[in-house]
């Protein structure tokens, strides 16, 4: 059976492991950031590889035939490492990237090129709903003028904003729930990464309904020369084709 390494930590990574399981040998790789991650079916390894070279060594040692980088669109380093490991080993690599979100009628979106730019964009607001995750809070640590409601899966560690409440929650989130948070906490701006996908999209609708702006952090590009797929189905078809597995 061909051996597929899925770099995961996302819903899509878990789904792809489920779709491919039984037809190929699947190993999912998780970074180990979340204390109690949702585990995919198949084999799972946890923790960094030690850069692109470490990943290349792992790929050789475990006789991996294809790699799917199904990491979060903002997990830039691991995607860069995957491109390096693929180039070094000659093992085919696909990046599975769910499409980003698009603003619609009535949306007031303000694009930011980075978390640092997002921190500048919230200046002047009073109550910020910060949904960019626990990592990267340091970019907002100097923003003393606003109160932050930070949503994260695990408790944040400093540095973080001086005036902050934390909501420990993991998606998917509902529209009713997001409406409630915005109203109860009197939020006047939402900050999000352009993560895409349905699980965390209701905050965008809730913000539009509440008439408040959303600061959207632009996603980094897929590393140059790496083929990309937008859906789990496309990625599964690619694996079957490239690994020579019949559907
Ligand atoms: P990152 O900055 O791109 O990666 C930092 C280092 O963490 C990598 O160099 C690698 O260490 C290790 N790493 C990352 N993902 C890994 C994986 N799937 N398997 C093994 N090692 C991994 O990544 P990040 O932004 O911290 O994200 C970490 C994980 O959380 C990823 O799996 C990602 O899918 C998930 N996630 C990230 C976000 C986000 O907004 N960034 C959101 C939701 C979920 P070595 O160099 O030692 O190999």
Quote the CATH topology of the largest domain: Rossmann fold
The tally of structural domains comes to 2
| Beta-strand content estimate | 15-25%
Low-pLDDT segments: none
Tell me the strand order in the biggest sheet: 3-2-1-4-5-12
CATH architectural designation of the largest domain: 3-Layer(aba) Sandwich
Considering the protein shown, what is the CATH homologous superfamily of the largest domain? NAD(P)-binding Rossmann-like Domain
How large, in whole angstroms, is the Cα Rg? Answer: 19 Å
What is the level 1 CATH name of the largest domain? Alpha Beta
Spell out which ligands are present. Answer: NADP nicotinamide-adenine-dinucleotide phosphate
Largest sheet: 6 strands, parallel
Helix content: 25-40%
Report on the architecture of this protein:
With 247 residues, the chain is an alpha/beta fold. The protein folds into two domains: 3-99 and 220-243, NAD(P)-binding Rossmann-like Domain (Rossmann fold, 3-Layer(aba) Sandwich), CATH 3.40.50.720; 109-217, 3-Layer(aba) Sandwich (Rossmann fold), CATH 3.40.50. It contains seven helices and twelve strands. Helix 6 links the parallel strand 10 and strand 11 (214-217). Helix 1 packs across helix 7 and helix 5 crosses helix 6 (202-210). The radius of gyration is 19 Å and the shape is elongated. The structure holds NADP nicotinamide-adenine-dinucleotide phosphate.
